[in-house]
Design brief:
Layout (H helix, E strand, L loop, with lengths): L6 E14 L2 E14 L3 E5 L6 H8 L7 E6 L16 E4 L11 H11 L4 H14 L14 H13 L5 E5 L7 H18 L2 E6 L1 H6 L4 H19 L10 E4 L24 H4 L4 H16 L2 H21 L7 E7 H4 L7 H7 L6 E5 L3 H9 L5 E5 L3 H10 L5 H6 L3 E4 L4 H25 L25 H31 L2 H7 L4 H30 L8 H25 L3 H18 L11 H6 L6 H13 L6 H27 L2
Helix pairs in contact: 2-3, 2-9, 9-19, 10-17, 10-19, 12-16, 17-19, 17-20, 17-21, 17-23, 19-20, 20-23, 20-24, 23-24
Bound molecules: adenosine-5'-triphosphate.
InterPro entries: AAA+_ATPase, ABC2_TM, ABC2_TM_bact-type, ABC_2_transport, ABC_transporter-like_ATP-bd, ABC_transporter-like_CS, P-loop_NTPase
Main location: membrane
Subcellular location: Membrane
Length: about 675
């Protein structure tokens, strides 16, 4: 035995629990493991005994609850250590591959992450494709068989020729000939370049394929352990993994003095103390662009969604109701206008685009039609209308009979507030115009019927404000915000579920690098989305933007970033798409309703109004309204506050997501 050899992996009294302290299950019990450099170390044990968990702890994905792990004398993740990073090649149990990528694109992604040169990547790709008997490198991963996908996954782990290889059941689905070749290669890299390999294998499967003397050794040890588990009546999931070394010649008992201690970095901070690396961001950007390239239809869909949403909003919301059907019972006309035909003059002043009158000869019939929902209301004009109105204005008669007869009587279906409001408004306006015309025809000054209020030129806005101008800017912000939440949360949760995120993390990528690259790629997509929104809302549907369009676009864009960080937060605690949908839907609607987008916050009960300040949309929505309707610039406090609040929410979401992701280790 060569006593001078250092240890590649040393685990001392490692314990690992899953779950929280009130409901935790111990998976690793006080495990001690010493793996010298340059050997193949077999990690054996029944299914569920914790082999994968141990490997994840070794590569720095999980923290031990107690005990210590040292890799080449340093803690995983310590400063300057390339584990996680280039020094470790990890092949997880699941394939963890981008299904729409070609073999070459997949390998190039990891090559770039490990900062390999193009030449280096190409020569390794050629070698690995030949060595692992893979089809053409342009073939898509999705089109490969299960075994071929497994080999691509192995190729990704071998690519950068790391000094530590962690392979979780690498030979599953591989035929015996190739398995032999892989074993030979592993033994060869152990001997020639002192690579340390830790490999898990499921001994029941190995028993089935036991065609190697070494596997028989595994099998023998496994049976011993199985007996021990049964003797001690241990639940399988609580049993520590068994370990054995393949080339037992190289075994060396641990010499703790040889371990160069390094300070253990703080768990949460570790990821963020590392300055983002340009080559990793670049690798992630190219990866994201490849994802987009392989799904170009989805990209167009991303542009189409905001356009469809804003167009539908502008088409369907805020416009004045038109062609409202109303029943009319004009008793004056039915009685052949006994005192004159001022009722016709009145009706002609009522906007016929908005109200469509249908005349009835019978009052009860007309009222029934309203009751049956065929009309929004009934307008009744009584006999002697003309005489009564003359009496009222020229003889100043104000007895109830004169007042009743000189009025138009409305029996309305008031179940729809907007329709009721429109009917009343249109008829009131029509009546006012009729009165003015009537008075001036009789030589009176029509302004006598004006109410004693003069609305001067508005300071902001127009004399005829539109609901669309009030609601559309807020809607535009929320469209981009909600889209960014959904897409980001789904992208990350799918990557997490398929083990892709974990694989990238083990390749040394940090959450900041992932977010940076995501924002950079989304930057261009979102710019196009925002431009399309403005073009459709402002130039096609004529939503008013009195202030700077650029400033409005910047705010909408920033709100999109806020949505991305919120999406990241959702994905940090959700495990699958279903949960994302539930959380996104459950939080998006309360935000939409309480942020004053659809109805002024001034109309809310005081508690709700107070709470509305705490949605990420309220202040930015107010800010964009100030830009759009008042033409305010950045110097106004309500505008810069909107920018400040959305940036603060983004930062807060990002920090909480990062902490949650770190805590989940
Ligand atoms: N995220 C998790 N939360 C809770 N329990 C978990 C989690 N992951 C694994 N476990 C449990 O921990 C135990 C060990 O799991 P692990 O995947 O490490 O086993 P394994 O030895 O690799 O199994 P196999 O050989 O089937 O892959 C199992 O009982 C499993 O149910």
């Amino acid at each position: 035995m060569d006593q001078s050899k250092e240890l590649a992996v040393s685990v001392q009294n490692g314990c690992k629990n899953y779950g929280h302290f009130w409901n935790s299950t111990r998976v690793l019990h006080d495990i001690t493991l010493n793996v010298p450099i340059g050997i193949i170390y077999g990690l054996l044990g029944p299914s569920g005994c914790g082999k994968t968990t141990l490997l994840r702890c070794i590569v720095g994905r999980f923290e031990l609850n107690s005990g210590e792990i040292l890799l080449f004398g340093k803690h995983p993740g310590s400063y300057g250590h390339e584990i996680p990073g280039r020094s470790v090649g990890y092949m997880p149990q699941e394939n963890a591959l981008y299904k729409n990528f070609s073999i070459s694109e997949m390998l190039h992604y990891f090559g770039r992450l490990h900062h390999m040169s193009k030449k280096e990547i190409l020569s390794r790709v050629e070698f690995l494709i030949h060595f692992l008997d893979l089809p053409l490198k342009t073939r898509k991963v999705a089109q490969l068989s299960g075994g071929q996908q497994r080999r691509v996954s192995l190729a990704c782990a071998l690519l950068q020729q790391p000094k530590l290889l962690i392979l979780d059941e690498p030979t599953v689905g591989v035929d015996p000939l190739l398995r032999e070749k892989i074993w030979t290669h592993l033994i060869e890299i152990c001997q020639s370049s002192q690579t340390t390999i830790i490999i898990t294998t499921h001994y029941i499967e190995e028993a089935r394929k036991a065609n190697r003397s070494l596997e028989n050794v595994f099998l023998h040890l496994c049976f011993n352990d199985q007996n021990r588990i049964e003797r001690e009546n241990l639940p399988i999931s609580f049993a520590n993994p068994l370990t054995t070394e393949v080339n037992t010649d190289n075994f060396l008992p641990m010499n703790t003095n040889q371990i160069k201690k390094s300070s253990k970095p703080k768990k949460i901070l570790r990821d963020y103390l590392v300055f983002p690396k340009l080559h990793k961001i670049l690798a992630l950007i190219i990866k994201d662009l490849t994802v987009i390239k392989t799904n170009i239809g989805f990209l167009f869909f991303q542009f189409l969604i905001p356009v469809i949403q804003v167009s539908l909003f502008c088409l369907c919301i805020g416009r004045d109701p038109k062609a409202l059907p109303m029943a009319l019972f004009n008793n004056e006309s039915l009685n052949n206008f006994p005192t004159g035909n001022e009722s016709l003059q009145l009706l002609s002043q009522i906007n016929s685009d908005q109200i469509h009158f249908n005349s009835f000869n019978n009052f009860d019939q007309a009222l029934n039609s309203v009751k049956q929902g065929r009309y929004w209301g009934l307008a009744e004009i009584r006999t002697n209308f003309t005489e009564a109105i003359n009496d009222k204005f020229f003889k100043f008669q104000t007895d109830p009979l004169t007042l009743n007869t000189s009025s138009i009587h409305l029996y309305l279906d008031m179940t729809n507030q907007q329709v009721t409001f429109t009917m009343q408004n249109v008829i009131l306006n029509g009546t006012e115009m009729f009165l003015k015309r009537f008075l001036s025809e009789h030589g009176f000054d029509p302004s006598i019927v004006n109410p004693p209020v003069i609305i001067e030129n508005p300071i902001y806005g127009s004399l005829t404000p539109k609901f669309l101008n009030f609601a559309a800017p807020g809607m535009m912000i929320s469209i981009i915000y909600f889209l960014a939440i959904g897409l980001t949360a789904l992208i990350f949760v799918v990557e997490k579920k398929e083990g892709l995120l974990e694989r990238s993390w083990i390749a040394g990528v940090t959450i900041i690098e992932i977010m940076f690259s995501h924002i950079i790629v989304k930057f261009f997509i979102q710019i196009i989305q925002v431009v399309l929104l403005i073009v459709f809302a402002h130039f096609i549907f004529e939503v008013e933007f009195k202030g700077s369009l650029l400033l409005s676009m910047a705010l909408i864009f920033l709100q999109g970033i806020c949505g991305m960080t919120y999406g990241l937060l959702i994905s940090s605690f959700c495990e699958n798409e279903m949960q994302v949908m539930e959380v996104a839907m459950g939080s998006v609607f309360p935000m939409l309703l309480s942020s004053g987008i659809l109805w002024p916050v001034e109309g809310m009960p005081s508690v709700m109004r107070f709470l509305s300040h705490f949605t990420p949309l309220t202040y930015p929505v107010e800010a964009i309204r100030c830009i759009a309707a008042r033409g305010w610039s950045f110097v106004y406090y309500k505008v810069w506050l909107g920018f400040l609040i959305t940036s603060s929410w983004s930062l807060a979401f990002f920090i909480i997501a990062a902490i949650l992701l770190a805590l989940k280790k």
